[in-house]
Specification:
The structure holds 2 protein chains of 2 kinds. Chain A is an all-alpha fold. Chain A is built from 7 helices and no strands. The longest helix of chain B has 34 residues. Classes of the chains: A mainly alpha, B mainly alpha.
């Protein structure tokens, strides 16, 4: 029996349905049961280390608690609860992430990068890509979400709410 | 009494009334659209209210809260998809009624019971919130600390996820609240040298991210779902016979919903479930439940709408959110520089009563909007999500940016959205994270003040009766369900297997 078989043979796991393509493999169940708590614990270790680097105030100026005390208390609580969770949790059925979800995630990251050049270029491109990726093929709908709505939102916020957007190739057309 | 009238006069401004009518329509639209709910709607619209007067801004947010909570029933009845999670139990009887050609009667009953539930809860809010605020006037930091701990412990019971995961998410929110300059010592924590983070992680982008952008990713996996509304001839109000049959249910569910709403962190979803179950338990025709019972619709809808008023009691009187949406409204109050708590009832009583009156007004408004506009709103639900969500995303990002006009907030919103999506995927509710983020600062400040006050002897908090009371409530909230379950299991008769 492999380690994976041993770990997933627990009665805590929902049995995988025969031929059910939308349910995850044992590997994904393993991720849910152990990798997620492990990631949380790693985060706690990192956060705890960072909290040890905070400046400390001299005892005479200390008002109640040191700046690192409260975060460390909370980190300790998260760590304790996470270990408890890993030991006791039952993993239910998880839907497999579709390619559309992964594509949307990638598009979000792409949006952040393009938004650094021009926020509205990023918004227009993202909205257009998202609609296309999600199955929209009508030209008017793509123009609506990718061009008309971002432009309308820009003028709404710029004109009525007096919000100044970061300069970029497109926004400069209006600001200059 | 003077504040009651001056609050009413503040609402007499015609432009504000027009805004409230528009907000009611917007709230009903938000609630009717599957995927968008009251919390997401309020979070997305919060940045639009920043430039408004505080009364107008908070009145609009509470209006959207009440209207969206009601509107979830429209899609629950017409397309068997609850517009908000609080309307999930309305599907059970509303949709069967619609299928047999009585959609109008079901919507009429939902509108009447929601309106009555909402009005009852606002009247309770008007009576209870000032009393609670007066009681809280004598709270010292240890009492506030214990109360906040109790509020956070209630996170264990929200949603349908595990209590442990809710507590981890809540604690993570509290940890996020420690980012920035420590208020007691002025020392920077977790800022990584970024000046933008010195005031802490901003609430609004996080909320837009975890409620709006994470939902976009959830919707990406629901593209295959097709929605078709049932045919509806006309909406008619319930008959006199219907009223005779359901009035007790409406009043009972209104009481239950208001009480559940007052409990910290519990919201309309829990209220509707308990309201529905109690309606079934007390009904003379429990066999009709699940097959198209008007009592089922009334029990669920009166309870979820009455929770809105109840949830505002601890939010305004103590600064502890009574529901996820109330947490976003609390963030809105803070953004406007208002500090909810006992002093608000003495120093800004006009403001508080203006909010109460706005909530009362919206409960009447959505009755008419719900009855006359249901056919239209049923069509809105058919807007393809591949057009709707790119538009929602555009508004989310611009809303996140607009508050501080900082690109860091855009990154925070998208980061919170991706985090929220994976949290939800692995069973961690995002609601505790936001409530933890809001209450974290208060928790640490009160702890620090208590330590100063008690000369660093924290255990003296247990010697103070009120603090002890809240700590006992905390222990009950955390361990009560477990102990109750153990007790119940032990007393259950052991059946013989015959072997």
């Amino acid at each position: 029996m492999s380690l994976e078989d041993f770990l997933t043979s627990s009665a805590d796991f929902e049995p995988r349905e025969e031929g059910a393509a939308d349910f995850p493999s044992r590997r994904e169940q393993l991720v849910a049961r152990f990798v997620v708590p492990l990631l949380i614990l790693l985060f706690c270790v990192g956060a705890y280390y960072l909290s040890t680097q905070f400046d400390r105030v001299p005892p005479i100026l200390k008002r109640g608690i040191q700046p690192s005390d409260f975060p460390q208390l909370v980190i300790g609580l998260i760590g304790f609860l996470t270990i408890w969770l890993a030991l006791t949790q039952k993993v239910g059925k998880l839907e497999v992430l579709t390619s559309t979800v992964w594509g949307t995630l990638l598009a979000l990251i792409g949006f952040l990068l393009v938004a650094e050049i021009d926020l509205f270029l990023g918004l227009g491109l993202f909205a257009f890509t998202l609609a296309l990726m999600w199955g929209e093929r009508r030209l008017w709908a793509l123009v609506l979400v990718g061009l008309i709505i971002p432009v309308a939102v820009f003028f709404l916020f710029d004109g009525i709410f007096e919000v100044r957007f970061p300069r970029g190739p497109l926004t400069n057309l209006w600001y200059q | 009494m003077e504040a009651v009238f001056s609050g009413l006069m503040a609402l007499a401004d015609p432009s504000l009334l027009v805004l409230l009518v528009a907000a009611t329509l917007g709230g009903v639209m938000v609630g009717a659209l599957p995927g968008l709910n009251a919390t997401t709607g309020v979070a997305l619209l919060l940045p639009f209210t920043i430039t408004m007067e505080p009364i107008a801004a908070i009145a609009i947010l509470t209006t959207i809260y009440c209207a969206a909570t009601f509107a979830g029933a429209i899609t629950a009845i017409l397309i068997n998809t609850p517009g908000t999670s609080a309307s999930a139990t309305t599907c059970l009887d509303g949709y069967p009624l619609a299928q047999r050609g009585e959609a109008g009667r079901a919507l009429g009953m939902a509108a009447v019971s929601s309106t009555i539930g909402g009005i009852v809860s606002v009247l309770c809010l008007m009576a209870a919130a000032p009393l609670m605020a007066r009681a809280a006037y004598n709270f010292a930091p240890p009492e506030y600390f214990a109360l906040t701990v109790f509020g956070l412990s209630m996170l264990a019971t929200i949603g349908d996820g595990s209590a442990l995961k809710n507590l981890i998410a809540g604690a993570f929110g509290v940890l996020l609240a420690t980012v920035g300059i420590d208020l007691l010592t002025s020392i920077e924590r977790f800022t990584f040298g970024m000046n933008e983070l010195s005031e802490g992680i901003p609430f609004v982008p996080v909320m837009i991210g975890v409620f709006g952008i994470s939902e976009l990713l959830v919707q990406a996996s629901n593209l295959h779902i097709k929605r078709e509304p049932v045919k509806m001839k006309a909406i008619r109000l319930p008959s006199r016979e219907d009223y005779k049959r359901v009035w007790r249910t409406i009043l009972r569910s209104s009481g239950i919903g208001t009480f559940i709403g007052i409990l910290p962190a519990e919201g309309a979803t829990v209220a509707s479930m308990i309201g529905y179950n109690e309606a079934k338990r007390w009904s003379k025709h429990p066999e009709e439940f699940g097959k198209g019972s008007l009592e089922g619709v009334a029990g669920s809808e009166a309870a979820n709408n009455s929770a809105t008023g109840g949830a505002m009691v601890p939010t305004l009187a103590l600064g502890i959110p009574g529901s996820p949406t109330a947490a976003v409204i609390l963030a809105g109050l803070m953004v406007h520089g208002l500090r909810p708590g006992p002093t608000m009832f003495t120093e800004q009583a006009d403001f508080v009563f203006a909010i109460f009156w706005a909530m009362l007004l919206v409960n009447v408004l959505f009755f008419f909007v719900g009855l006359w506009g249901a056919k239209l709103f049923a069509r809105i639900t058919l807007i393809p999500i591949n057009i709707l969500w790119p538009i929602v995303f555009t508004f989310s990002i611009v809303g996140a940016y607009a508050l501080e006009q900082s690109m860091l907030d855009v990154w925070i919103a998208v980061g919170a959205g991706i985090l929220g999506f994976f949290m939800r995927r692995y069973g961690f509710s995002v609601v505790p994270l936001t409530i933890g983020l809001i209450l974290g600062g208060m928790l640490e400040t009160r702890l620090g003040q208590s330590m100063v006050m008690l000369d660093e002897q924290w255990w003296l908090m247990l010697a103070r009766p009120l603090s002890l009371f809240f700590f006992i409530l905390t222990a009950l909230a955390l361990f009560g369900p477990y102990l109750w379950g153990r007790l119940f299991t032990q007393r259950a008769p052991i059946k013989s297997t015959g072997e």
